[in-house]
Amino acid sequence: MLLALILTVSTTRIITPHFVGGSSSYFSDTEWATGFFHAGIWEIGANIDIKPDTLNLGSQGQWITVYATIDTDDEDNIDVSTVILDDAVYAEWWEVQDDGSFMVKFDRAEVITYLLDEGYVDGDEVELTVLGELDGINFKGSDTINLVRN
């Protein structure tokens, strides 16, 4: 009988506060997502050589020629419609050379008009940048030319 009394009193005082004054719970959540994302701007460096090195602003020539060496084995995958000089003049003609370089031509009159509109004059040294896309990845390179007026 004493044992029953001790168990009843101790159970009431010890267990009851847990039922009356507190509670506990456990929560778990898991989420999954799949997909593709691009972080940043991906570019391939290109070695660019612009010809002529000295551009006569009064010339009547037909082309500005750019030779680009890009670290790739497949220059044929260049999207020529994306090749642009200084975000202003689009390429008009191109071919892959025997040495693997990419040759692209820009209309000389358009390039000269662009340079004059930007305020460049005789004696200026101008850095021009060529941008394009190869297999969905941008390539970019720059070269410097000198301007003269004869």
Blueprint (SSEs and pairs):
Blueprint: H1 2-21, E1 43-51, E2 54-56, E3 63-70, E4 78-85, E5 89-90, E6 93-96, E7 102-107, H2 108-117, E8 125-134, E9 137-148
Description:
- With 150 residues, the chain is α+β, with helices and mostly antiparallel strands.
- It is built from 2 helices and 9 strands.
- It is elongated, with a radius of gyration of 35 Å.
- It starts with a helix and ends with a strand.
Give the mean pLDDT.
82
Largest sheet: 9 strands, mixed
The class by helix and strand makeup works out as alpha+beta
Would you tell me which CATH topology applies? Immunoglobulin-like
Using the 3D structure, state the CATH architecture: Sandwich
Please identify which CATH superfamily we are dealing with: Immunoglobulins
What CATH first level would be assigned?
A: Mainly Beta
**Helix and strand succession?**
HEEEEEEEHEE
* Relative strand content: 35-45%
Radius of gyration: 35 Å
Shape: elongated
Spatial separation of the terminal alpha carbons: 123 Å
- The DSSP helix count reads 2
Unreliable runs, pLDDT <50, ≥5 residues? none
Q: What's the count of strands? A: 9
List keywords for this structure.
elongated; 150 residues; alpha+beta; Immunoglobulin-like
